[in-house]
Amino acid sequence: MAKKETVAFSKNATNIFFHILTACNLKCRHCYINPEQHGREMLGIGTIEKWLAAFTGKFRTANVIFLGGEPTLHPDLPQAVKSARRLGYQSVTVDTNGYLFHDFLSKVTPSDLDYLSFSLDGAIPEVNDALRGQGSYEACLSGLQKAKSSGFSTSMIYTVSRANLDGLESMVPLLSDLKPDRFFIQVIGIRGKSVESMGQNLQVSPDDWLRVIPRVARKIADLGITVTYPKVFLERSETFECAGNVADNYFIFPNGRVYQCPLCEDFPLHSYQFAEDGLVGTPRINEADLFQLNIAEGCVINKLFQPGNIVYDDDGNPVYQIACCLLKEEIS
Ligand code: SF4
Ligand code: SF4
């Protein structure tokens, strides 16, 4: 029987989401990377190592996830992975679209890397490639199979939008064959070009989300795969918390901006910045000022940038609070 639990923000672990470049070989319709805000640089390996060290100096335990753009386009990614291990990061993950450039798999070992995560947005090429680009389905599956046969632990990430919500159930037989260790369902964000793509609104409605996601997640968990998905809506009995106030998550971009809330990434609201390789706070007003605001609707940034997903009753009270985007349900 699958076990479901809400994964509270860990108060003891620090998570570093490190975008080492913003360049990518793909042009996914829902890509959240915004080079105007995030920079176009490819960070040198010396800078990557200094920025990694800035967090291990500050926090006792930290996990790092290397991201892009496509992080395997960085020729020094293998060295960055090994440096993170040497610096004492508790876990090291790389998120990839599956192309695995620069012969990445031959330059790291399963002991260097805790997880290699592959993004796939459809169970068949027709669905996935319409969102992520021609040939990306094939590249992702072949990359995942190579990683598994070389002994790496793998995850798969499926970003749900209106364009592929109903295809999620078709992932069940595919996952039964591929058997990644973990499956992450993400909801299309309000960042980058996520919401409006090619004139079509890809945002999923609350009703559709609740109709499909928990049910299909349970089916996938029954395959023995750990499934994680965002909580999105809180029950009345649940208490709202903003991860910006109670947890340590840092989203680093190549231009040195460091955010604590991913929903703020399209704006110069970052609360930290790397300057001369040291981490410094930014002047007010920044995202941390917004985290303090206590509102009936839950997440403040959601209310500011995406009020359309809040439903009110006849008395003007929100029917659900919108959960922090970093709050997850986990089923295993
Ligand atoms: S693979 Fe990732 S970074 Fe590249 S275009 Fe797609 S969503 Fe954006
Ligand atoms: S998503 Fe909302 S609740 Fe979560 S860190 Fe950002 S502002 Fe706070």
Question: Any overview of this molecule?
Answer:
This protein has about 325 residues and is an alpha/beta fold. It has one domain: Aldolase class I (TIM Barrel, Alpha-Beta Barrel), CATH 3.20.20.70. About 25% of the residues lie in helices and about 20% in strands. The protein has ten helices and 17 strands. It has helices spanning about 35-40, 45-60, 75-85, 125-130, 135-150, 170-180, 205-220, 245, 285-290, 300-305; strands at about 5, 15-20, 60-65, 90-95, 115-120, 155-160, 180-185, 195, 200, 225-230, 235, 250, 255-260, 270-275, 280, 320, 330. The strands form three sheets. It has a 13-stranded mixed sheet with strand order 1-17-10-7-6-5-4-3-2-12-13-14-15. A two-stranded antiparallel sheet has the order 8-9. A two-stranded antiparallel ribbon has the order 11-16. The N and C termini lie close together (about 10 Å). The mean pLDDT is about 90. One iron/sulfur cluster (SF4) binds near residues 70 and 97.
Average pLDDT reading: 92
Number of helices: 10
What's the helical proportion of residues?
A: 25-40%
What strand line-up does the widest sheet have? 1-17-10-7-6-5-4-3-2-12-13-14-15
- The tally of structural domains comes to 1
The N- and C-terminal alpha carbons lie at a distance of 9 Å
| Number of beta-strand segments | 17
Q: Quick one: biggest sheet?
A: 13 strands, mixed
CATH class: Alpha Beta
Categorize the overall geometry. Answer: globular
